[in-house]
Amino acid sequence: MYRRGFLSGTVAVSVLGAASGCLDGGTGGGVDDPDDGDGTDAPADGGNSTPSDDDSTPAETGTDGSTLTIADREFVPTGDCGSDDAGTARVEFDGNEATVTGCITGRNGCQRATLGDVEYDAETDAVTVVVTTTAGEETPDACTQQLVHRAYEVTLSFRERLPSELVVFHESMDERTEAGRATSD
C-alpha cells in the first residue's frame, strides 16, 4: 500500500544524492598538472605565453658597426580577433622595446597563434618576426572546419638599441605573407 510513497521517496533521495557531488561547492574545476606539484590549474591562455628560454640572442654587428642583442622576447595569444583585422600586424617602438600586435588566420578551430621565429639581419639592420598557427597542445578529437582569426602580442626587448626596421610575417595555411613593417626612426 505504501509502495508509491516509498518509491517516490527513494527516487528523490537517489537524485539528490547523485547531484550532491555537483552542488557541494567543492574545489573542482580545471585540470591539475600532476607534474608541477603546486596544485594550481593551467593558465587561462592554455599555457601559450612563451617568454624567452634563454636570456638573449647573441649580439650581432649592424651596418653602422653597432651591436644589437635581443635581450628578451615574449609571445602572448590574446584571444580571437575580427576578420577585418586578419592578416595584419602593427609595430610600435618604445624605449628599447618593440611591441607587435596582430591577427593571424588559422585553417580550423584547433589552430592557435604561436611565435615561429625571430631573426636579426645585420646587413639590413632589420629584425624579422614570424608568427604561425599550429594546433594547440591539448587538441580535441574534432575541430570546427571554419577559418579562425587569432590575436596575439609579441614584445621584444633590445639590449643596446633598436633595429632600423622590424618586419612581421604570418605563416598560415601553407602561405607566408607580410603582415606589417615599421622603422624605428
Automatic annotation (TrEMBL):
Polar residues: which segments have biased composition? Answer: 58-67
Which residue stretches belong to region Disordered? 26-67
The species is Halorarum salinum
What is the protein name given in its UniProt record?
A: Uncharacterized protein
